[in-house]
Design goal:
The chain is of the alpha/beta class and about 280 residues long. It is about 25% helix and about 25% strand. About 35% of the residues are buried.
């Protein structure tokens, strides 16, 4: 399919469409990628909306805004690697080839952002940095999301694109919000506002007037991220809003038996470490 506007193909077989928006004589300043596995509905929705927003600026339909830099946007690569009768080996090869094609098209950009889904839990909107440098630490705050989390660069943790981008310099970020295979509109609005804020604060788009509705930024290292394990398995139910602060002893939710419906355990944050005796409720399953 061909998307109207400045849209091209990244591969000869036409399997990876992208939006190439802004001054073509310049190298891309920013690249945004989502949905490498056909599961990131939030990222796909946000980036398709953002591409439409940038195309409007480029076409002069938003006369008070100016697009100063070139931006590449890949809302979805899809799940073309998977299909009935496709062997696991071929799926793995096609995914590798897909990532290589995306990297080849995006490596020239200075800022690179991957919206990476959480498969198992719903997560609060956040920026993740993997073994970052000081420039990445500073730029991560420009998104205005409530949390920046640093993690080591490990194969089982870092997104494949972050690994692949690393040798090409620049600044690399992974954004997470919500949960894969579902559309959570509140998280989508947070991501969209964050990306628009980044466009403004990096000077890529001029003329924006941001509202001051951002939460206080929390910057977390690996030692400040805790996993609360229930004593028994079952269906976890919580009334807590993802991203809010919780205090020691406050109930996080209940676990119910999946067959009888009986409550089996009450989950709470009973022990907190550090000077601040509260923690963000960062995710739920």
């Amino acid at each position: 399919m061909t998307i109207p506007g400045s849209t091209e193909r990244l591969r000869n077989d036409g399997s990876i469409p992208h939006h190439d928006i802004g001054p073509q004589e310049r190298a891309p300043r920013l690249v945004l990628v989502a949905d490498l596995q056909g599961q990131e509905l939030n990222g796909m929705f946000v980036l398709s909306r953002l591409a439409a927003f940038l195309r409007d600026i480029e076409a002069g339909r938003r006369r008070d805004l100016r697009l100063r830099e070139r931006v590449l946007v890949i809302p979805s690569v899809g799940n073309a690697a998977e299909g009935r009768g496709t062997s696991a080996q071929r799926i793995a090869w096609l995914r590798w080839a897909m990532i290589e094609a995306v990297v080849a098209a995006t490596q020239a950009a200075y800022y690179r952002v991957a919206i990476h889904p959480s498969l198992d839990v719903e997560e609060m909107p956040q920026v993740r940095l993997y073994a970052p440098n000081d420039d990445e630490r500073a730029s991560a705050c420009l998104f205005g999301l409530p949390a920046v989390i640093e993690r080591p660069l490990e194969p089982d943790d870092a997104p494949a694109l972050v690994w692949a981008w690393r040798p090409h310099g620049g600044e690399n970020f992974a954004l997470r919000a919500g949960q894969a295979n579902g559309l959570q509109t509140a998280h989508c609005e947070s991501l969209f506002r964050a990306l628009v804020a980044f466009l403004d604060r990096t000077g890529i788009v001029g003329g924006l007037r941001l509202t001051h509705e951002e939460e206080d930024l929390g910057y977390f290292g690996q030692r400040q991220v805790f996993v609360v394990l229930a004593e028994q398995s079952g269906i976890f139910s919580s009334r807590q809003e993802v991203g809010r602060w919780v205090q020691a002893g406050e109930e996080l939710g209940q676990v119910y038996d999946s067959f009888t419906g009986a409550q089996t355990v009450r989950c709470e944050r009973s022990r907190l470490r550090g000077e601040r005796h509260e923690r963000r409720f960062g995710f739920r399953s």
